[in-house]
Batch of 2 targets.
Target 1
Amino acid sequence: MRVSLSSSTRTSSQGSRAAGRSTGGGQARLPSSRERRPALAALAVILILLGAAGSALIALNSGSRSDFVAVSGDLEPGHKLERKDLSRGDLAGATGGLIPWSEADKYIGHYTTTWLYKDQFVTPKNFTSDSNPPVPTGGALVGVSLEAGRAPSDGLNVGDIVSVIRVPTANQEGGASTLVTAAEVTSSAGAITDSKTSANSSLNVTILIPDDKVTLVGAAAASKSLMLAKLSPATKPEVSRNSGGR
């Protein structure tokens, strides 16, 4: 009798191959769609939160922006401001000290105190505090320190008109001479006599004089041979801040 084993042999071999495929395939199996869902949901939540945070930040920055004064072109010191010289720009964040656009008109007619450049935002320090030029054309500011006997005992105030006189000391040559007929006092500090101790002190003033007399007045001030005599307020100074010249 003849017995054939080919069928059982093939079946066993095929089962071994199938088992091998099953064993090897289990290690490289891709995650099922059901397993991927939690990860995708978490990623979506993260993206939504990031988008919301970005939108909130943009809205916050946009809401805090304000308009400030800038200049529309390059301006040199001593330039008298006109409406066309100013432009509007918006900024956010730390803007302390800048001039708000709502106050722009307050500075029309004032003078620049420094160089300013196109699109530069400005502060009050970039302009004079009033419509008087800091130093008018043809003028110069000179500081003078005065002791007792060289200025009125009750002092001098801003806006006073004085005559600038050279009075040589005992060891100096020459006689008294008027250096500036009428000069305007632009600042004053100190006093001839200390109000608390009654001791002699110093009065420090700044006067506006013609620029061609700076050397004479400066030399007299340095040698302590200068005195100031207060004149009538109606006296016209040789150089005036109000008129911008002589």
Target 2
Amino acid sequence: MTKTGVLKVAVESVTPNTKRGGDIRVTLSPRTVNSTSGFGGVLRLAPGEAVTEHYHPWSEEFLHVVSGRLEMRLDGEPVTLTRGDSLMVPIGVRHRLVNVGDEPAEAVFHLSPLAPRPELGHVDTEQPTNPGADNPDVGGQR
């Protein structure tokens, strides 16, 4: 924490989560900075790599593409995203993200509001890439 009370988390200090595919790092969350309204972080996908389909029954998801070419399927409808594009996924909308480019892709994400308990925040609608892996640890009430 800085003198002003600002909390900073370096992305490389966070263990990647690979349950749904890609390299997902939750940097700002109830666990890391005691946030109360949501959580966010960085997502990295290699060419052809995907985050499996799921939805959030309590949260909107905001995604901003830093680099690469991605395709987000929202309830099955494709939306192409490139560097500088932002997208909001409404509560309850199924979504799947794929790196459709030839280069690694990186995006920043934020979900808000928080689910009442972390285990209620994601509902998988296809088999996760690593089903035995834990969900990202965002912290909060259990």
